[in-house]
Structure formats: structure tokens, C-alpha cells
Specification:
- This protein is α/β, with parallel strands linked by helices.
- Among the domains are: 28-158, Leucine-rich repeat, LRR (right-handed beta-alpha superhelix); 192-300, Alpha-Beta Horseshoe (Leucine-rich repeat, LRR (right-handed beta-alpha superhelix)).
- It has five helices and 21 strands.
- The protein is elongated.
Length: 452
């Protein structure tokens, strides 16, 4: 036994690790960084004797039922407790854990509820895993103060509703996974505050309705999955809110391809990114057709849709170029009146997004646990998007693509046509008036002299 222990220590030293002799039974502990690995030992409770300075604690694949205050030290940086039988987490369990960056509570199917302040104070938390936890609802302020969070995994729960502003504090969130729940609507302020969001997965829910302003804060979103829901229609105005969108999946919804689909059809014609098919299931003459392949003639008697937001912005720019109160610009004369046309200033272009560096956050090579359970979509779109790792970033079609430049060049405003001609005519008319006045004066003088 002593020889085996010496051999283990020697192997760890070869790997650049220093064995720690203060370690719970059946666990492996080492330093640099200080780590406790107690995975897959059928523990019913958190084992005693975890060194207080442990930075990384791995307790996955056990049968732990409860998490209580004092089980872990506030020095913890990474804590994995996924795939256990956790049914209760004391609200103060993680209070004071200001160094915690990665917390994985996923695959605890009987957890079902969380206290509002469970994660309060975790200012450095970067990734929070709550997938497959049996959650049917979330407390209002559950994510309050998590301003450093970038990855939030909430997929495969029983969530039916997301209240307004629940993600309001997540200013740096880039990935939000909500697929495999029971959501049926997306409201105007469901995603308010998520200005850094890059990927939003909402597939495999029961979504019937999306507010036309639901995505108003998602200016940096590149990937949106809405397939396998109950959507009959979706307004193009809703998607106009997403200037950086590159990948969109809308397949496997009961789309109605009548006049209600006209704005979506028009948006799809303008979109230059990657989209799935949009299969029509109504009316009868459209069943089996792809909305993307329809023509304008397929929408007879449909009134035109409202102009998109970009068109409205350009119209506003045009209408604001003439400003008589300005003292600089092109002077235009019409008879006795003058006005000033102010040349339009270069307006800020839309978000022609530059390629952004996306850093994949993976586990270190010397982890005791090198790969976690693969969470891939188990439907016909799995080839489009799979999660090979916790933070693996792959494009939906498996390739790296570039968005085409979608911003039209701006042109400088000129005076309205015909203005110069009007100026010329006004000058000629004025000259004729002068000649006429001189001629009348001469005639008057001449007639007066004769009468004398």
C-alpha cells in the first residue's frame, strides 16, 4: 500500500502536480491548483474533509441530496455537482463565494425550485449550468448581480413562462440556452438588457407567439433557433431588430402562408444569412411549399406591409435635411423668398458587424474530468448545432462563414432639381422689370416736357 501511494505521488509529480495529504476518503486531491476530485463514488452527502483552500471541487455522478452552508469554502473557483440527486439547496450555500467562476448543478432532475438569493453575490461567475433540473419556474431576481455571467444553461427543464426583465442584470451574457422547455410566448421585455447576447436557443418549446418587439435589445445576436415550436406566424418587424443575425432556424412550425406571412416573406427575401426551410401547413393550396420559395404573385389581395425600420430611418433623414433655421448651407431663391437647404451630415451606418473573436472557454488539460456529457440536440437539426463541450462554439452548419456587407452607401443630398433654373428665371425677370421701369420714366419725362 505504501509503495502504491509513493507510485501515485511520483506520477502526480511527473504531471506537475503535488499530492495533498489532507483529502476526503475515496477522493483524489492535489495542489497547483488545489483540487478535490470525488466523482462517481456514490456519495450520499458532500464528503467531509475537503481542504478549505480547495479551488476546484468535482463531485459529479454521485447521489448527493442536499447542499448546505459550510459544505464548501469561499475560495472555490470551479464547482461541479452535476448528475446527483439534489433536491434542496440552502439559500446561503454560496454566499460569500466571490471567486466562483464555474458552477454546474445540471442534471439534478428533482431539484425543481431555487430560492431567489441562491446565486446572489457571485460577482465573478462566468458559467451557470441548470439544465435538466426539473425547474418549472424561476424566481424574479434569481440572476440579480451576475454581471460577469457569459453562459447560462437552462435547457430541458419544465419552464412555461419567463417574466419580464428576468435577465436584466446579465449585461455580458453571450450564450442563453432555453431549448427543450415548455415556453409558449415571448414577451416584449423577456430579453431586455441582453445587449451582448450572441446565441439564443429557443427550439423544442411550445412557442405560439412572439411579440414584435421581443428582440429589441439583441443587437449583437448572430444565432437564433426557433424550430420545432408552434409558430403560425412571425412578423418581419420582429426580425428587423436583429442587425447582426447570421443563422436562423424556423423549420418544423405550423406556418400559415397567407397574408399574415407577407412581412416574414419580405424579410426572408432581404436576409443574407443562413436560414432553414419554412414549411407551409396552411392554407390548403400552400401545404408542403416553402415560404422562402414563394413569389409575390402567391400573395394576391394582400395589402403591403409597413416599411421596415431601416426604411423609416432613411425617410426621417431625408425629411430632416431642409431646415430654414440653419444659417449655413445652400441658399435657394424663389421670387422674393429664400430658404436654406442644409447638406445632410454623414449618418452613422447600421451595424455592419466586423468579425468578432469568439473565445472558447474549455477545461484545462490536466483536469481529472476531461469531458462532460455531450449535450447535443436530439432532433433532425443536430447536424446543424451540437454542443461538443460546455463552451464549444461551432457555426450551425459546421462551417465558418462571413456575412455579406448589407449596408448601402450613403449619398450626399443635393438641392432639389429645378432650383437653379428657378434662380435663373428669377434673375431674368428682375432685369426686365428694371428695363421696363426706366422706359416708363423716360416716356413720362418726354410727355411732361411737351405739355409744358
Amino acid at each position: 500500500m505504501f509503495k502504491w501511494g509513493c507510485g501515485l505521488e511520483f506520477l502526480l509529480v511527473l504531471c506537475g502536480l503535488e499530492l495533498s495529504w489532507s483529502c476526503p476518503r475515496h477522493c483524489i486531491c492535489y495542489t497547483a491548483p488545489s483540487t478535490v476530485s470525488c466523482q462517481a463514488h456514490n456519495f450520499l452527502t458532500v464528503p467531509e474533509g475537503i481542504p478549505p483552500d480547495s479551488e476546484r471541487i468535482f463531485l459529479q455522478n454521485n447521489k448527493i441530496h442536499r447542499l448546505l452552508r459550510g459544505h464548501f469554502s469561499s475560495d472555490t473557483v470551479i464547482l461541479w455537482i452535476y448528475s446527483n440527486n439534489i433536491t434542496y439547496i440552502e439559500p446561503s450555500t454560496f454566499h460569500g463565494f466571490t471567486l466562483l467562476e464555474d458552477l454546474d448543478l445540471g442534471d439534478n432532475r428533482h431539484l425543481r425550485s431555487l430560492a431567489e438569493d441562491t446565486f446572489h453575490g457571485l460577482a465573478r461567475l462566468n458559467a451557470l449550468h441548470l439544465y435538466r433540473c426539473g425547474l418549472s419556474s424561476l424566481p424574479n431576481n434569481i440572476f440579480q448581480g451576475l454581471r460577469n455571467l457569459q453562459y447560462l444553461y437552462l435547457q430541458e427543464n419544465h419552464l412555461k413562462f419567463l417574466q419580464d426583465d428576468i435577465f436584466m442584470d446579465l449585461h455580458n451574457l453571450s450564450h442563453l440556452f432555453l431549448h427543450g422547455n415548455r415556453l409558449w410566448s415571448i414577451n416584449q421585455n423577456t430579453f431586455r438588457g441582453l445587449r451582448a447576447l450572441d446565441r439564443l436557443l429557443l427550439h423544442q418549446n411550445q412557442i405560439e407567439w412572439v411579440d414584435h418587439l421581443a428582440f429589441h435589445d439583441l443587437k449583437r445576436l448572430t444565432t437564433l433557433y426557433l424550430f420545432n415550436n408552434s409558430l403560425i406566424q412571425l412578423s418581419g418587424q420582429c426580425l428587423d431588430m436583429l442587425p447582426a443575425l447570421e443563422y436562423l432556424r424556423l423549420n418544423d412550425n405550423p406556418w400559415s402562408c397567407d397574408c399574415k406571412a407577407l412581412s416574414l416573406w419580405e424579410w426572408l427575401k432581404r436576409f443574407r444569412g443562413s436560414t432553414s426551410s419554412v414549411g407551409c401547413q396552411a392554407p390548403v393550396n400552400m401545404v408542403g411549399k416553402d415560404l422562402k420559395e414563394l413569389r409575390k404573385e402567391d400573395f394576391p389581395n394582400c395589402s403591403p406591409t409597413a416599411p421596415n425600420s431601416e426604411s423609416r430611418a432613411q425617410t426621417h433623414n431625408l425629411s430632416s435635411t431642409v431646415n430654414p433655421s440653419m444659417n449655413r448651407g445652400v441658399v435657394i431663391g424663389f421670387g422674393d423668398q429664400t430658404s436654406v437647404v442644409q447638406p445632410s451630415r454623414p449618418s452613422r451606418s447600421r451595424n455592419c458587424t466586423k468579425p468578432r473573436n469568439r473565445l472558447s472557454k474549455g477545461k484545462e488539460d490536466n483536469e481529472v474530468h476531461h469531458s462532460k456529457e455531450v449535450m447535443a440536440d436530439k432532433d433532425n437539426s443536430s447536424s446543424d448545432f451540437t454542443e461538443g463541450g460546455k463552451h464549444d462554439h461551432t457555426s450551425p452548419d459546421g462551417t465558418v462563414t462571413r456575412r455579406k456587407h448589407k449596408c448601402a452607401p450613403r449619398t450626399t443630398m443635393r438641392p432639389p432639381s429645378g432650383v437653379q433654373q428657378a434662380n435663373n428665371r428669377a434673375a431674368i425677370s428682375q432685369s426686365l422689370l428694371h428695363v421696363h421701369a426706366i422706359f416708363v420714366a423716360l416716356i413720362t419725362t418726354y410727355v411732361g416736357s411737351i405739355l409744358r
